[in-house]
Design brief:
By secondary structure, this protein is α/β, with parallel strands linked by helices. It has 20 helices and 20 strands. Strands 3-4-2-5-6-1-7 form a seven-stranded parallel sheet. The relative contact order is 0.10.
């Protein structure tokens, strides 16, 4: 498996911080590949025994699967409700299980404790585990990874981590095609002046005041009209200020003939799971919620986010918008296409914090290959954080935006050339009009193809049928195809720097190609042959797309 360049940087910076300071926090949003990077950090440090904590069974299983992919020779074991084994060099544990007294008594001396979803680390169960592990080894390294370091209860992680090694932003992931692009609309329905005067409480705005401004029938009707115009039939998540406000918005959508469901903190867990399933399956089009659909939940078919409340911190706004940016595998959602996500802000969040489109700059791009990230000190909590951070991941302190004299990544438009240049594989145009691009390794191949109004990413493994990877924008498709090759090949199979790439094609290659092709190099001929040999399978895959 070959890590993305940005993942490699994240890993190197985390390893450096752990060796220098004994603890660090890594911040990376959904889509960055946290499980892969976490596994790589553990593998790079080569500790005698590590424990990787998670708070849900599915996260534990996912982390262990990815760990085996990255570190196939490292023995693993599990500590959960069904099994309690410390035999592995890397042990994957459920925090709730390990925190019990009789299980903590069996805790061996660890070299490294890894906390996935590290924003939970201030919970009593995690603190008990950290204290027990440090009592057995005062030199214990503690590594946390999370997408959302700012806790909803305002409690900081500074008691556990004194620095942040690296912080991958949504802007980077969107620019590199790992997430779909947002299309942001700020819609003034006459409430912006009122919202600017709302009191700011300890950790957020006074939502009762927000409700008094936003919860009016004429405003809700205007919101639904604008939503119909901009979103059409998109699956949508709506963020409201209070339960009363959300109830009225939900009722208005239903009255307008839209299949809508409501979820709040008061919704029973089983009912909540069913509501989320209904949205994902398409039986519900709109999910209205209050501070529920932000953390630990992803619904890839969602391609519209509606903000009916202001956000005091930019990180909260990014969390909400991030619910609609996830790509998905076409096999899981047949017949669906997702090229972008529409963001409708009826408040002041985008005006106040700046849209995601405005957040991407070349600063991180220029630092990408520098493993030692330039750091700065947060003036509020004194944590060491990456100098490129716009907001402290520990306390939420927002740094004053500096005048940017550098060129920006226009609308996340990392050029196709940049993305191709970063790939360890060489990509070849199969057609003169550029509508088919293919790269090949020893065992796998990937390609992007223009089909109707969409680009399609397709991948395959030797002697196996082609697989549809993604349907949408060209950059996102290219990223999906490149990820497929990285997943199924090794560094030795990355042909970019091999000398034979530029040698003339062999006679055998020419004999297999029709007279319509005139490859200049051996690798170009290999890509053409890969396309020829898989043409029927590719056509069958593309033929199933709407």
């Amino acid at each position: 498996m070959i890590l993305r360049d940005r993942q490699k940087v994240f890993v190197e910076r985390s390893v450096t911080a752990l060796r220098d300071r004994g603890n660090t926090l890594g911040v990376a949003p959904t889509g960055a590949g946290k499980s892969i990077m976490l596994a790589s950090v553990v593998g790079r440090l080569g500790c005698a025994r590590s424990c990787i904590l998670a708070h849900r069974d599915e996260i534990t299983a996912q982390n262990m699967d990815k760990f085996r992919m990255v570190n196939p020779d490292v023995p693993v074991s599990v500590v959960d409700s069904r099994e309690k084994s410390w035999s592995g060099k890397a042990v994957f544990a459920m925090a709730q299980t390990l925190a019990r007294d009789h299980n903590l008594e069996q805790l061996p001396s660890l070299d490294m404790l890894v906390i996935d979803e590290a924003h939970h680390a201030r919970a009593e169960s995690y603190l008990r585990i950290i204290e027990a592990a440090k009592s057995r080894n005062p030199d214990l390294m503690v590594y946390g990874v999370t997408a959302t370091p700012n806790r909803g209860d305002g409690k900081s992680l500074r008691d556990i981590f004194d620095n942040c090694a690296d912080q991958i932003t949504l802007s980077e992931l969107i620019g590199s095609g790992q997430l779909v692009r947002p299309r942001t609309f700020v819609i003034d329905i006459g409430v912006q002046d009122g919202l600017r005067k709302v009191r700011k409480m300890t950790d957020d705005y006074d939502m009762a005041e927000v409700e008094a401004i936003m919860d009016h029938t004429p405003l809700t009707e205007a919101i639904i009209r604008n939503w119909r115009e901009k979103a059409g039939n998109r699956q949508t998540v709506v963020f409201c200020s209070t339960v009363v406000h959300a109830s009225h918005v939900s009722e208005a959508f239903i009255a307008a003939g839209v299949k809508t469901e409501l979820v709040t903190g008061e919704t029973a867990e089983a009912d909540r799971a069913q509501i989320f399933h209904n949205l994902e399956s398409g039986s519900t089009q709109v999910l209205v919620n209050v501070a529920v659909a932000t953390e630990g939940w992803d619904c890839p078919p969602v391609s519209c986010v509606v903000l009916l409340r202001p956000c005091s911190h930019k990180s909260a706004m990014i969390q909400m918008i991030g619910r609609g940016l996830r790509k998905f595998e076409p096999d899981r959602y047949p017949g669906q296409v997702k090229s972008d996500c529409i963001v409708l802000d009826f408040g002041t969040s985008v005006i106040m914090h700046g849209s995601l489109e405005q957040a991407a700059s070349l600063e991180l791009e220029k630092q990408l290959k520098k493993y030692e990230a330039p750091m700065k000190t947060c003036p509020n909590c004194k944590a060491k954080i990456p100098s490129a951070s716009h907001e402290c991941p520990f306390c939420g302190y927002e740094f004053e935006a500096k005048a940017n004299t550098k060129p920006e990544l226009n609308d996340f438009a990392m050029t196709e050339f940049d993305l191709l240049n970063r790939s360890p594989f060489r990509w070849c145009n199969i057609r003169q009009d550029g509508s088919a691009v293919v790269a090949t390794g020893f065992d796998a191949w990937g390609g992007i193809f223009r089909h109707g109004n969409h680009w399609c990413a397709v991948g395959g493994i030797r002697k196996s049928p082609a697989k549809l990877l993604f349907v949408g924008e060209k950059t996102a498709c290219l990223a999906s195809a490149d990820d497929w090759l990285r997943l199924n090949e090794t560094e030795s199979a990355a042909h970019k720097s091999c000398r034979w790439l530029c040698q003339p094609p062999t006679e055998k290659q020419i004999s297999y190609l029709s007279g319509n092709y005139n490859p200049q190099t051996r690798y170009e001929a290999a890509c053409l042959l890969t396309h020829e040999f898989n043409r029927r399978s590719i056509s069958q895959v593309l033929g199933r797309i709407l």
